[in-house]
Amino acid sequence: MKRTGIIKLDEIDLAILREVQEDSRISNNELARRINLSQPATHARLKRLKESGVIRRFSAHLDHEKLGYELTCFFHTRLQGHLEKDVARFEEQVMAFPEVLECHYLTGEFDHLIKGVFKSRKDLEDFLRNRLSAIPGVSQIITSLVLSEIKTGTPLPLPE
Asked: From residue 156, how far is each of 2, 21, 28, 142 by CA, in Å?
């Protein structure tokens, strides 16, 4: 396996990835049983997939509404300047906001697409007025409120 670029994966690696995408808390013993490989070999492959960066991290998917985050929003932002320092300053500040779940640098009409969650309209307003629009260089923000989530947090489509 290479450390950069596309990683070559065999059928066993793909089987491991399918299983851990479905249940990241699966035990090594159960994983080995499901993919029909010894426990030491399974552990070694899983370790290699983590070290190579194919597996970034293991996490739990939380239900944000059950935790009081009733609003999910997307923000298209445009910056005044596009020098590396301007973009980096914006991204650094956005990454520090705990409400921000995702931030993507884009081509096209807008520079970034941000996904955030909020407990109330007041929290959303505070975020827009006092935090996102206060970042130096932000020239435009278009906000969209999510009415319902159709598909989210889905596994990558790995070859069979």
From this structure: 20, 8, 21, 29
Question: Closest by alpha carbon to 105, among 96, 115, 114?
Answer: 114
Structural domain contains residue 6: no
Residue 84 lies in a domain: yes
**Domain span holding position 120:** 71-145
Amino acid 36: pLDDT: 97
Amino acid at 115: K
Q: For the chain, how long is the longest CA-to-CA vector? A: 57
Nearest to 97 by CA among 68, 124, 67, 76: 124
Residues 51-61 as b or e (16 or more Cβ within 10 Å = b): eeeebeeeeee
Per residue in 83-107, pLDDT tens? 999 999 999 999 999 999 999 999 9
